[in-house]
Amino acid sequence: MVRLMVDAPAAGSDESAVDAFLQGGESLRHAPGPYFGSYGGRWMPESLIAALDELEDTFEKAKADPEFTAQIAELNKNYSGRPSLLTEAKRFAEHAGGVRIFLKREDLNHTGSHKINNVLGQALLAKRMGKTRVIAETGAGQHGVASATAAALMGLECVVYMGAEDCRRQSLNVARMELLGATVIPVTNGSQTLKDAINEALRDWVANVDNTHYLLGTAAGAHPFPAMVRYFHEVIGEEARAQILEQTGRLPDAVCACIGGGSNAIGIFHGFLDDPSVKIYGFEAGGEGVETGRHAATITLGKPGVLHGARSYLMQDDDGQTIESHSISAGLDYPGVGPEHSYLADIGRVSYEPITDSEAMDAFRLLCRTEGIIPAIESAHALAGAMKVGQRIAAECAADEAAGKATVKASEKIVIVNLSGRGDKDVATAAEWFDLLDKDSAEHEIAKEGEQL
Amino acid sequence: MSTVQEQGTARTASKSAAAIDRAKAQGRAALIGYLPAGYPSVEDTIAAGIALAENGADLIEIGIPYSDPVMDGLVIQAATSEALNKGFHVTQVFDVVRGITSKTDAAVLVMTYWNPVVRMGVEEFSRQLAEAGGAGLITPDLIPDEAAEWMAASDKYGLDRVFLVAPSSSPERMKRTVDASRGFVYAVSIMGVTGARTSVSSAARDVVAAAHAAGAERVCVGLGVSNADQVREIAAYADGVIVGTALVVAIGDGGVDAVASLTKDLSTGLTREEA
User: Fold this and answer.
1) What number of CA atoms fall less than 13 Å from residue A218's CA on the CB side?
2) Can you tell me the distance from the alpha carbon of A70 to that of A262, in angstroms, rounded to the nearest whole number?
3) Torsion angles phi and psi, residue A213, rounded to 5
4) How far apart are alpha carbons B42 and B29 in whole angstroms?
5) Which of A53, A348, B97, B187, by CA, is between 20 and 30 Å from A413?
6) In chain A, which residues have their Cβ closer than 8 Å to the Cβ of B67?
7) Which residues, listed in sequence order, are joined to residue A255 by a DSSP beta bridge?
8) Residue A23 — very low, low, confident or very high, per pLDDT cuts 50/70/90?
9) What is the ipTM of this complex?
């Protein structure tokens, strides 16, 4: 019996995993896959298994190759602009219970988000495998733009699959990809959303796997993608941990990130997984409210299932059909989530909570007005979550003080927020949300609620 | 893994294997026809399945419409989307299987992406399929590595487990997949998704040879087969020929009668020409 996986080693072993972690016996870092507890694996057509094996083998060898790690470090430094800053947001923090808030500035990376970390790594692997073509899926266009960027830098042909409706709404991002030399293919089948763009990319991959690498944009999918995408984003957490120690002399009390597929989150979480004093929070897209059914709160309300190659929490109906997700943020608008997040949720290491569209947009505006930083609407979910976390911490401090317990002041507590991307792409959506557009303007015509130009 | 298979084989005779062996005894390859359940209606699928059996198909493959069919081309995507839009529910697949098996001797397999089975529960799904008279499952996105639960349930209920092998399968994977399969092995003729193609890739012959060499007694070829000439070409070296998209087009354009006449035509290609 070779590597047969029993479906669910389930609750018992998951509890022992968290116990082992709490006792300091076992590290949660560098989980290699293919399984994270009972999640992950390879729920994929046999036709693609050879390509996944080749990718896994190439990735494992590359990780151990000083030349590869040096290439990544050089690109991160001299192309992406790493390390990204850790900025204290003092005026914003006044609205978060008065705790200290630090922003990990992935918005300052080249192409404007954390996505560049992963695409550079995978494009290098594509070159190592002798592939001449990369394909990618994109929702809002961020991962598509990042993929087109990496492909241009490394001389690879690039094809991006994007829902037809998203192409129309994001016509400027389509133009960006085309300026960078990529071909954008509108996907008109299924629900014409991000998940259908992934389906179409997988169909392309099956047919062209000899010369093509599928540059998956998030820490989901079949092994080795979840562990590999995390590896390329681990730099976020490593930098943040070193920077907070340097700036404050201690570890944070909490780390917050937004979760769609979960790549930015797993990147920053990874740096703190083995620090028991650091609470970790992932904020999912609550859309119009989880009670309305129009949301993307996969872990909060989903049930385990298999989609796009991995077993993980999934938004699905009683028949196992995938349910369409809804969020004002296209980057979080996905009915699945990376398998490592499902595991971290089950063992209780990370708390996952929904943030509604309107909570996110309030935080979006607040950061603009208090710090002069326009965040991506995705990242605004993490900001809104951090405000709640800060207020809870402040309430606990006040309760301890009232009870006469010795306590640390809220103003000495530290929360890090992963500011995963910048909001330039979201200006039209925000302008529509806050009713800033002239009723006769072209933007008003195009930018219905939830849409971005 | 081989012990699991032996136990299963000992427990219940494979319906798919029996159907293929009956064709073999007649000096021909088996014909396997695919229809998506609920397209254009559940009643039509049952009637078309019976027409398949009465006009020369030895095995019938009933597909469960699924929201994310990554191995299917545009024709089958459109058909299964329509079925879902009309309100198809997964449990109706058992009505289809029962409707066909109660009227014909054909072996009826269900082709399904894995999540609907996971959602219902592998054990429960297997129980209901067996009760409906189904032969087993064809699983396009389940590989033996992830199939522990299905191995156990298929053994318990005597169901065939048809895994796929592809031109890209390594010798090691070929062996593992052949060992895990029961009934037959589904050889993907080309690297790609379902859909009619003007010619059948030469890779198909190599995949079949590799599967036979790895110990498979019955290997059937699918993907891209749409007419009697292609059936004839494949019947020369494979144990069965699977036709999908062409039948879906037929039922969409001409209903049950068109399925009957296409099946009759396809079956003319089954007899092996004397060497």
Assistant:
1) 32
2) 26
3) -105, 135
4) 29
5) A348
6) 190-191, 321-322
7) A280, A416
8) low
9) 0.93
